[in-house]
């Protein structure tokens, strides 16, 4: 139903917005911490470390504002692929014809033909439910990943401080791309 999808979209957008505000607040706290540490540090190596932390913080801050563009671009590309596949009328018509033929042949007086068609129609029904549950799982996973994306940007600067890599952001991007595309 379109109302359910609209409700889910509005909920995801609302919680994304809330998480973004929380992420910005935390990032401002981190900026104050790094600024204070830079101001009181006297050793050159510490100042260099805090300058690097400040650059990583700036990257995190920029990511908060760029993340929704990454999400939007990925979903747009995915929607274009779906649109291309949906325009393949021959495949849709062929599937409808096969299903109609299976239902018609299941009424056949020949036991083997009728029973075989009932089994195939049942398998198609089972696969339809499997795809439905897969789609629902995918939808909720993508919604969750969108909602937590601002928090992932915070971990970017923290990850970069430890080992110079951002495992959380890389894992989030990989998971998001895997689920959307």
Can you describe what's shown?
Helix 1 (2-40) runs parallel beside helix 4 (111-163) and helix 3 crosses helix 4 (111-163). Helices cover 92% and strands 0% of the residues. The protein has 181 residues and is mainly α. It has helices at residues 2-40, 44-86, 89-106, 111-163, 167-180.
The sequence of SSEs as H and E is: HHHHH
For the termini, the CA-CA separation is 23 Å
Uncertain ranges: none
- Count the helices. How many? 5
Count the beta strands.
0
Derived from helix and strand composition plus strand pairing, the structural class reads mainly alpha
Q: What is the helix fraction of residues, given as a range?
A: over 70%
Q: Indicate the mean pLDDT.
A: 83
Sheet-strand content, in percent, reads under 5%
What kind of sheet is the major sheet? Answer: none
> Which term fits the overall shape?
elongated
Rounded to an integer, what's the Rg over CA atoms? Answer: 25 Å
Topology:
Blueprint lengths: L1 H39 L3 H43 L2 H18 L4 H53 L3 H14 L1
Briefly, what is this?
With 181 residues, this protein is mainly alpha-helical.
Key traits:
single chain; 181 residues; mainly alpha; 5 helices
